[in-house]
């Protein structure tokens, strides 16, 4: 991986701008990782519930790793066919169009400061329209209320925004602006669909929502297809076109080659991020899932349903750091395999409440079914099982909402390396679980968008390039599966509702 490249070999360069680090990855035409550079950048927590980034630090680290990955691998700009960008979604940057300087810190997706604005939107009766038009909900997570907050709290910024001096963008848009040295102010449909300002049916900025959030429409970037041409950069030693942009979760869905309705991916990290391709029309959810644009390729838009599980790998961290039952996350597999089953033990890790489809912020974690014979192995096994159960909850909901049957689940993220967990997942879903050879699916997705946009690869080649490392087939008897999953749902019900706190 560290050998110098031959001067004829060609690559696509993925810029993967994440929440804690900026990465640059070179991929070859078969979608194999050839070189990686990565750099972390600071997180700012000025008040409880606030999370900020310095957009200039994001840009500096991103440019640095892009240059570094090319230099260390001996790649010239002529060898880079195109750049693809994928990014932490929803994080909000406002900058001066003329100087290219951010006017404040970026407000990160995790930041909760706009909760009151969301309450106002609900009180003003905008929430229903917002859900219909954007597929999202009135929540601080998304960009729109963050823009409003910045303009409301800085009258000077509002004046300059009204005068057309300021530009808004999510991180993709900010990077495109910097890479093109201010020539292009654009975003792609997947990122636009996370702002609360974009109408996912009409595929354009929604004037009614811009008014409701007091955001001047002139601040917003031009919206392009995910594999459109986004301009050229000359900052990497020569001219390189930018030809692909998508938010990180959508890029991962693309990188997993989930190109058809019914295909889904799950990223098992600290939490789980699930996306299911639902075809070419948006599907509304009855259970609080998000309807989102997956991507648009050459004029054709794909949509997805999105759901998440707050606590997944974090439950394994809790076994390690809280209960000290294991030394390392991967030891969980060894202990789980020491017992034939969890002996009726259910661990419900509702540490921060429960999301889809239960939506109970007051729920708290619990362990059920303890008996005199319960030992550490059962608790560890039941904790791993809980990750698969929660994923099943979300995927069952998606299938119901979309009226589409899941064809296969493709997996990535740290905990997807756990074979026990993946087998149990296949058993609970009664569907094949597929783990790819290349687990850098987010960066791969951005690279493949750029490769198809530039015409270096046809879209169909994605499915051929996607390589299976291991498939897990359902093995559990359906009756047993039913009994176990029913037991889980029963355990979850018992954790719901607030438990009285001692005075
Ligand atoms: P993130 O991007 O959210 O930091 P990662 O994809 O790096 O997450 O995955 C790390 C998470 O996965 C941690 O929460 C860790 O506990 C969990 N994890 C890592 N390896 C394993 C494993 N072999 N079995 C179970 N959980 C694991």
Explain the overall architecture.
By secondary structure, the chain is an alpha+beta fold. The chain is 34% helix and 23% strand. The protein has 16 helices and 23 strands. The strands form seven sheets. Strands 17-18-16-15-21-22-23 form a seven-stranded mixed sheet. A six-stranded mixed sheet has the order 3-2-1-5-14-13, sandwiched between helices. Strand 13 and strand 14 (240-247) form a beta hairpin. The termini are far apart. The mean pLDDT is 94. Residues 269-270, 313-314, 316-317, 329-330, 332-333, 413-415, 417-418 line the site of adenosine-5'-diphosphate (ADP).
Keywords:
503 residues; alpha+beta; seven-stranded mixed sheet; 34% helix; 23% strand; globular; binds adenosine-5'-diphosphate
Sequence stretches where pLDDT stays below 50 over 5 or more residues: none
Based on secondary structure, the structural category is alpha+beta
Q: Please state the overall shape, judged from the principal axes of the Cα atoms.
A: globular
Number of strands: 23
Query: What distance separates the N and C termini?
Result: 60 Å
Sheet bearing the most strands, described? 7 strands, mixed
Name the helicity range.
25-40%
Strand content: 15-25%
Per DSSP, the total helix count is: 16
Q: Bound small molecules, which ones?
A: adenosine-5'-diphosphate
Q: For the largest sheet, list the strands in their spatial order.
A: 17-18-16-15-21-22-23
| Rg (CA only) | 23 Å
Could you report the average pLDDT, rounded to the nearest whole number? Answer: 94
């Amino acid at each position: 991986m560290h050998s110098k490249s031959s001067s004829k070999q060609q690559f696509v360069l993925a810029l993967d701008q994440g929440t804690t680090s900026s990465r640059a990855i070179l991929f070859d035409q078969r979608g194999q990782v050839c070189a990686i550079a990565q750099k972390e950048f600071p997180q700012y927590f000025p008040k409880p519930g606030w999370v900020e980034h310095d957009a200039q630090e994001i840009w500096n680290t991103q440019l640095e790793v892009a240059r570094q990955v090319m230099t260390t691998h001996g790649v010239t700009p002529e060898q880079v066919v195109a750049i693809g960008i994928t990014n932490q979604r929803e994080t909000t940057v406002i900058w001066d169009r003329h100087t290219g300087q951010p006017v404040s810190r970026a407000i990160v997706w995790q930041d909760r400061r706009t909760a009151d604005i969301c309450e106002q939107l609900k009180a003003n009766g905008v929430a229903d329209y917002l859900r219909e038009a954007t597929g999202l909900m009135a929540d601080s997570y998304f960009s729109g209320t963050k823009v409003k907050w910045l303009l409301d709290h800085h009258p000077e910024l509002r004046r300059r925004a009204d005068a057309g001096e300021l530009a808004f963008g999510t991180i993709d848009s900010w990077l495109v602006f910097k890479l093109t040295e201010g020539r292009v102010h654009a975003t792609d449909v997947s990122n636009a669909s996370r702002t609360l300002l974009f109408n996912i049916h009409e595929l354009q900025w929604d004037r009614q929502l811009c008014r409701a959030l007091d955001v001047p429409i002139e601040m917003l970037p031009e919206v392009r297809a995910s594999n459109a041409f986004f301009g050229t950069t000359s900052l990497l030693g020569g001219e390189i076109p930018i030809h692909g942009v998508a938010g990180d979760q959508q890029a991962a869905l693309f990188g997993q080659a989930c190109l058809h309705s019914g295909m889904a991916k799950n990223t098992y990290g600290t939490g789980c991020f699930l996306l299911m391709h639902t075809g070419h029309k948006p599907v509304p959810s009855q259970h609080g899932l998000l309807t989102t644009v997956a991507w648009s390729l050459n004029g054709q838009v794909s949509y997805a349903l999105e759901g998440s599980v707050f606590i997944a790998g974090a439950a394994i961290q809790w076994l390690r750091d809280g209960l000290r039952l294991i030394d390392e996350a991967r030891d969980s597999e060894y202990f789980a395999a020491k017992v034939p089953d969890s002996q009726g033990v259910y661990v419900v890790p509702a540490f921060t409440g429960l999301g889809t489809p239960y939506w109970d912020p007051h729920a708290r974690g619990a362990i059920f079914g303890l008996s005199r014979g319960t030992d550490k192995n059962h608790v560890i096994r039941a904790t791993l099982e809980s990750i698969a159960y929660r994923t099943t909850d979300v995927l069952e909901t998606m299938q119901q909402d979309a009226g589409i049957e899941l064809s296969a689940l493709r997996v990535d993220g740290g905990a997807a390396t756990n074979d026990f967990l993946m087998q149990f997942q296949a058993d609970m879903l009664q569907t094949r679980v597929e783990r790819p050879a290349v687990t850098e699916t987010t960066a791969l997705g951005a690279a493949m968008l750029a490769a198809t946009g530039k015409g270096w690869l046809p879209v169909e080649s994605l499915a051929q390039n996607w390589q299976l490392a291991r498939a897990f087939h359902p093995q559990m008897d359906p009756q047993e599966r039913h009994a176990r999953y029913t037991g889980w749902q029963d355990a979850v019900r018992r954790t719901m509702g607030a438990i009285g706190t001692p005075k």
